[in-house]
């Protein structure tokens, strides 16, 4: 009798433990999907804040790469995780016309791709990393060389064009080369830096060149006009006047 009761107690204990364990697993699975959704929401919010913060000058790719990686990982985690109802992501998408999760994730992804930010970093078997690409690193070194030259104590507004022309030409030449190689587009961080650099160089250096060329241009135009006038006068003067025939009365 005692043995039978012990067996019954053991069976009851096993059943209770199994029920509790199963209930715990279900609750953990539900909490897991909720936590994954919250993690993705926080990642998208952080990326959006970072993108706005570094919108001008554009440093989106360089400064927000970790936030974007968190967004991608968060979405992938929801796609790969399941609970008793199925894949976690399925509980938040294709359920209404708003498609809030898909829309916000799509906006972050579209912004990153439109800026060609992947071109700024190295890829590991097709996966984005936060390690700068060789092209980006080289460009930043050349840009630093130019800015260091401009900031030298003996360089001012009248000497910068002559003293730093070598550094500028090297930077500009490298940018043209990577633009030609990357027909799909160059990382927007690099594009924005180069646009600003060209604008600075044009406003500070090209004006001196224009002044030096002004006299040459005026002289060229004047000589051209004299040449044209000479040929016109020569042609007019060389024409023979037709003889006038008088009729007899």
Characterize the structure shown.
This is Osteopetrosis-associated transmembrane protein 1. Keywords: Membrane, Signal, Transmembrane, Transmembrane helix. One of its GO terms (cellular component) is cytosol. It comes from Photinus pyralis (Common eastern firefly). With 249 residues, the protein is mainly alpha-helical. Among the domains are: 83 residues; 74 residues. The protein contains 7 helices and 4 strands. It has a two-stranded antiparallel sheet. Strands 3-4 form a two-stranded antiparallel ribbon. A hairpin with a 2-residue loop joins strand 3 and strand 4. Helix 1 crosses helix 3 and helix 4 packs antiparallel against helix 6. The longest helix is centred in the first third of the chain and has 52 residues. The chain is elongated, with a radius of gyration of 37 Å. It starts with a helix and ends in an 11-residue tail after the last helix. About 7% of the residues have low confidence.
């Amino acid at each position: 009798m005692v043995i039978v009761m012990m067996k019954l107690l053991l069976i009851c204990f096993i059943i209770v433990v199994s029920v509790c364990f199963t209930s715990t697993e279900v609750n953990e699975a539900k909490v897991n999907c909720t936590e994954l959704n919250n993690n993705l929401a926080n990642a998208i919010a952080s990326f959006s804040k970072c993108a706005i913060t570094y919108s001008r000058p554009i440093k989106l790719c360089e400064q927000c790469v970790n936030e974007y990686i968190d967004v991608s990982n968060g979405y992938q985690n929801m796609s790969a995780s399941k609970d008793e109802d199925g894949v976690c992501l399925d509980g938040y998408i294709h359920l209404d016309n708003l498609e809030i999760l898909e829309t916000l994730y799509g906006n972050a992804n579209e912004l990153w791709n439109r800026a060609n930010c992947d071109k700024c970093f190295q890829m590991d078997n097709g996966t984005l990393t936060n390690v700068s690409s060789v092209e980006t690193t080289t460009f930043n070194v050349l840009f630093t060389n130019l800015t260091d030259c401009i900031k030298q104590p003996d360089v001012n507004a009248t000497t910068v064009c002559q003293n730093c022309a070598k550094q500028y030409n090297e930077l500009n030449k490298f940018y043209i080369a990577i633009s030609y190689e990357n027909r799909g587009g160059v990382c927007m961080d690099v594009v924005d830096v180069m646009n600003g650099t060209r604008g600075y160089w044009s406003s500070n250096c090209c004006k001196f060149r224009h002044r030096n060329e002004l006299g040459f241009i005026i002289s060229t135009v004047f000589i051209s006009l004299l040449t044209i006038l000479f040929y016109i006068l020569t042609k007019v003067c060389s024409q023979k006047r037709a003889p006038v025939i008088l009729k007899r009365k």
